[in-house]
Amino acid sequence: MTIRAVVRGTGHYLPERIVPNSEFETIVDTSDEWIRSRSGIERRHFAADGETTSQMAANAAEKALAAAGMTAADIDALIVATSTADLTFPSAATMVQSAIGMTGGFAFDVQAVCAGFVYALANANALIISGQAERVLVIGAETFSRIMDWTDRSTCVLFGDGAGALVLEAQEGDGTTADTGILSIDLNSDGRLKDILYVDGGVSTQSTGYLRMEGKEVFRHAVEKLADTAHKALGKIGLSGSDVDWIVPHQANLRIIKATAQKMGVPLERVVVTVQDHGNTSAASIPLALSVGVERGQIKKGDLIVTEAIGGGLAWGSVVLRW
Length: 323
Ligand code: UT7
Known about the structure:
Elements: E1 2-13, E2 17-20, H1 32-39, E3 43-46, H2 53-68, E4 77-81, H3 92-99, E5 106-110, H4 116-129, E6 135-143, H5 153-156, E7 161-173, E8 181-189, E9 197-199, E10 211-213, H6 215-236, E11 246-249, H7 254-264, H8 275-278, H9 285-295, E12 304-311, E13 315-322
The site of oxa(dethia)-CoA has 20 residues, from helix 1, helix 5, helix 6 and strand 12.
């Protein structure tokens, strides 16, 4: 008998305020044309004053629970992937636990920046297959607008806020790639690359700090490492790009998304793309794209999906799952 972590429901939340590229033309030396052509981004959502990561996460979680036909009482573990928690502690996850009325089980955050949701899925899968939890709520939520340097045109135009959530549940499979649920995982990090994407502040420096990125360098690593991790995860179970129904990538840059799909031999029609509407929402981008993909009618039961992400650390990885 093989235990699989199967997706039961998805949900997402985007803050009300939509910011088109044209708004940046008034604050930095940029243009809608530059942002669109270099990143594929057309607009993004920004949290309202006082709106927090855990509030957005709780909204997405409620929707995922409703889609799964479950309540907070059914959940054994809750994981929030975020780099922008409301407070230094407690975790955003315990704040969500309180907001959704989950009084049992346990909750914790995972911090792997833009790869955070892939890392959180790997943790949830480990909890489920080891029997420590039967139902896990996995959330990615970020307020990157709070760590933007609004004078730095090379970063402030790229990021957005939002949250997405999945409910995973243990289910028996027969141990083949025809099983529903998480089938394979590949995780990586390389701390030697910590200085090409980071926030120049934190608790021990007594400041919040701003996101700093050597865009070109990160781009180069992303194109190489994302296709590589997806190939590795597929290869572990004897599959390849031609078996994939949907790539649901981290949404940082349309050019990275296209290059990765091409390297994997998957046509762009088989990629869920939301970067034009959300910008880069870091750990929220994959669960947002999964939820939107379901809502659009793209992702259907039985589809083989590959998610892949890379971010600060650098940390990167991919998860193969059957919907
Ligand atoms: O989620 C974590 C992972 N993050 C990523 O995957 C992001 C990876 N990097 C990227 O997506 C791209 O590198 C960017 C979108 C950040 C930049 O695209 P690029 O094609 O690599 O442009 P560049 O950084 O080489 O900049 C080209 C030019 C520069 O001017 P010069 O030096 O050629 O005169 C920049 O100063 O574009 C300039 N530039 C801008 N111009 C107008 C940079 N930002 C802007 C801007 N508007 N907002």
